[in-house]
Amino acid sequence: MEYTDLYIDGAWQPGSDGQRFDVINPADETVIASVASATVDDAKAAINAAEKAFGEWAARTPRERSIVLRKAFDLMTERLHDFAKLITLENGKATADAMGEATYAAEFFRWFSEEAVRADGLIAHAPASGARIIVQQKPAGIAVLITPWNYPAAMGTRKIAPALAAGCPVIIKPASETPLTMLALMPLLEEAGVPKGMVNVLPSRQTGAIVDTMLHDPRVRVVSFTGSTEVGRQLLHSAADQVLKPAMELGGNAPLLVLEDANIDVAVEGTMLAKMRNLGEACTAANRIYVHKNVADEFTTKLTQAMGNLKVGNGLDPDVNVGPLVNASTRDKVSEFVADAISKGAKLHVGGKVPCGKGYFYPPTVLSNVPKTANCVHDEIFGPVAAIQTFDNLDAVIESANDTEYGLVAYVFTENMKLGMSVCERLDYGMVGLNRGLVSDPAAPFGGTKQSGLGREGGHEGMLEFTETQYISASW
Ligand code: NAP
What we know:
Layout: E1 6-8, E2 11-13, E3 20-25, E4 30-36, H1 40-59, H2 62-78, H3 80-91, H4 95-115, E5 122-125, E6 132-139, E7 142-146, H5 154-166, E8 170-173, H6 180-192, E9 199-201, H7 207-215, E10 220-226, H8 229-241, E11 245-249, E12 254-258, H9 264-276, E13 286-292, H10 296-308, H11 328-343, E14 347-350, E15 365-368, H12 375-378, E16 385-391, H13 394-402, E17 406-407, E18 409-413, H14 417-426, E19 431-434, E20 449-450, E21 453-454, H15 461-464, E22 467-474
Parallel strand pairs: 7-8, 7-10, 8-9, 10-11, 12-13, 12-18, 13-16, 15-16, 18-19
Antiparallel strand pairs: 1-2, 3-4, 5-6, 6-22, 11-21, 14-15, 17-20
Helix pairs in contact: 1-7, 2-4, 2-5, 2-6, 3-4, 3-6, 4-5, 9-10
NADP nicotinamide-adenine-dinucleotide phosphate binds near residues 150, 250, 251, 283 and 408.
C-alpha cells in the first residue's frame, strides 16, 4: 500500500510516537497494511495546519473553490476502479457495491462544486425601523470529521466536499477498520488544487484522546460525525463544552412496509436494494420488514428466491454479489440476531449459517414470523438478514414502524399514491422511500429525526452545516 502515514499539512508523516496498526482484509483475514496511528500531538499539528490554510481558502471566490471541487470529481471519476478495489480490500463489500460507493462518493464533489457558487443571502427592509436586514453565510471554521467503516469513501466526501465548498478546512478521522481509502484520496485532492493544510487525515488507535483534544481546541468550530448513536451521544457531550456546531448522522432501524396493493415484484426488488446494498451494513438498511398478511407468502417466496440466488465470496471476484462483513464481531452479532429470532419462533427460509473457513462471511438470510420480542426488531442488524413480520391493520403497523428511538429512513410500497403519500407523512422519519429501496442522493438532504441524528448532509442543506449565518443591520 502506498499511502499509510498520516496526512498533515499536505505531507505524509509517520506519527509523533511511531505507533502503527494493522488493516485487515475481511475476505481472508490477512494484513493488507500497517497504518500510522495519530497521537494528541499530531492532532494539534493538524489543527495548526488547518488554521494556517483557512484564511487564504476562505478568501477565494466561490467560483475558484468550485473549480477545485469539480476537478476532484473529474479525477475521482477517472479512478473509480482503483478506489473501488481499495474499498473492497479493506471493507470487504462486493465490487459492484464498491463501484456504487466510489461513484456516489465522487458525486459529492460535483454536487458541492455546483453548490459552492450558490451561497445565497438575503436583503430586506426591517418592517418597523426601515433598516436593511442583510443576511449572509460565512465559513464556520475548522471542522473535525469522524467517519465509520461502512462507506470508507462516501462518508468522507459527503463531509469534505461541503466543508471545502463553504470555505472550511477539515481534519478527518477515518474508522480504524478502513483508513486506506481516505488516505488514497489525498493525492487526488492535491492534484485537484486543494491547498496543503485544508484537508488533514488522522487514522488513530487513540481515537477518544485525539478527538477529545480537537473538540476542546478553541479554533475548532464544527464536529461532523457519522457512526453509532452511542458514540454520537458522547461527542455531543464533548461538543457542548465549546458549543461546537454539531452534525450527527447516527444509527437507524428502518421499517419497510409492503401494503396489500403493492406490486410485489417492485417491492421485492426495492427490498433487495434496501436490505442488500452494502450487504446490509448500512444505516439505511431495511431492518424491520412489515408485509400485509394477504401478500406475505408471495413476497416471502420471491424474496427468498432472490436472496438465495446471490453469490457469496471474496468481493474482488466480479461474479460475487455478497462479500464478507467487516470484522468478526459484526459477523458474530448478525449470527446472534438470527439465533435469537429463531429461538423466539421465527422461521428460517434461507441462509442462517456461518460458513467454515477464513473470512467474515455470512449468507443472505430470510426470516419470517419474526416476533416483536426478537432483538433484531429493536437493534440494527447491520448484516444480510431480512426479518419479516406480517400485519393486517395499517394504523397499527404505522404505530409499530414509529415505535423506535431512531428516525433515519423508512420505505413504503403501494400502487396507491394517495395512500402512499399519506403513509409517508405519518412516518416519523427524516427520509422515506416510496416504491424505492434507495433514497441516498447527493442532491437530497440526507439525515434523520430523533436519535438518528442532527442536521443534514447533501442537498442544499449540506453546505449550511459548515457555515454560520451573519446578520448585518444597516442604514444608508
Ligand atoms: P462507531 O463505532 O460509532 O465508529 C464511527 C467512528 O467513530 C469511527 O471513526 C470510530 O473510530 C469513531 N469513534 C469510536 N469511538 C469514539 C470516541 N469515543 N470518540 C470519538 N470517535 C470515536 O460506528 P461504526 O461501527 O464504525 O459504524 C456503524 C454505525 O454508523 C451504525 O450505527 C450506522 O447506522 C452508523 N451510520 C450512520 C450513517 C448515517 O448517515 N446516519 C451512515 C453510515 C453509518 P475507530 O474506528 O477508531 O473506533
